[in-house]
């Protein structure tokens, strides 16, 4: 008689907080031959996050490959999802054994908002798989892999307060931004990142951010200085077409924000507050008009 040992099924899982980012500054300094633009921007992680759970299963009779699910039904769950593509890339580049890899994303970061929602999910998947497969990739190797998925992924892998140059991948660590409260408000329209970069090509940028000033303020732990140097060349382009950007900024400033700016390619506008109760009140009032309003804080 032939005895076959029942194959052992092993599960391993990890849950990662995938944090959003805001841009404290964003300057576009040139255009490369491949169409990508060179940038100089100061980026900051915030506490608002998606939760990404990654489970690897080995020994099942029928391995199922990468299986992604998401709390938001309108987001794609195949290779159009950046988190799915991150897993595909990880297995392809490391040669780790793929049987079943389940990814579940609990989405809290508003989508297509200038907050790097997709990029941070992708970064979370790379980190999770590196740990689950004990692949031993260094931070630099993960960032190199992440850049193949999108310009913001390397920052999302590292987080904190950073100067980003190149197309966003050349990162320099800056002193932590002084802690403050952040009210985020996403008006109900989408602005594709690619289009904003294209529009930048056809306008004269009259006012560039003073990144040196911003970095000096960060070096001194000077919160008021940070608020004074907030600047984003993309805000001018989008605010000219969408009156809500200016309206939200004015509302935040009139209700206690120490500084306001559009994040990334928008359309999310944020206000920085040193005072939590003022931030709470402003968020509560703004939420009556814009449902996608969040109260969060800086996170290093
Ligand atoms: C504008 C920023 C600022 O932080 O953020 P978001 O508004 O997306 O959050 C980033 O530069 C967005 O980075 P990310 O969203 O990762 O961009 P990618 O997916 O790599 O590129 C989307 C498209 O934007 C354009 N693009 C992106 C980055 C860059 N430095 N130059 C570009 O021209 C390209 O046309 C590209 O096809
Ligand atoms: N995991 C994901 N989370 C959010 N959006 C995603 C994801 N994967 C792919 N996308 C797509 O990426 C586009 C940009 O979304 P997002 O990354 O949230 O914006 P932004 O780059 O402005 O921060 C959306 O149109 C969305 O359909």
From TrEMBL:
Keywords: ATP-binding, Isoprene biosynthesis, Kinase, Nucleotide-binding, Transferase. The active site is at 21, 152. GO terms for biological process: isopentenyl diphosphate biosynthetic process, methylerythritol 4-phosphate pathway; terpenoid biosynthetic process. Its EC number is 2.7.1.148. ATP binds at residues 110-120. It comes from the Bacteria. Residues 214-291 form the GHMP kinase C-terminal domain. Catalyzes the phosphorylation of the position 2 hydroxy group of 4-diphosphocytidyl-2C-methyl-D-erythritol. This is 4-diphosphocytidyl-2-C-methyl-D-erythritol kinase. It comes from Agathobaculum butyriciproducens. The gene is ispE.
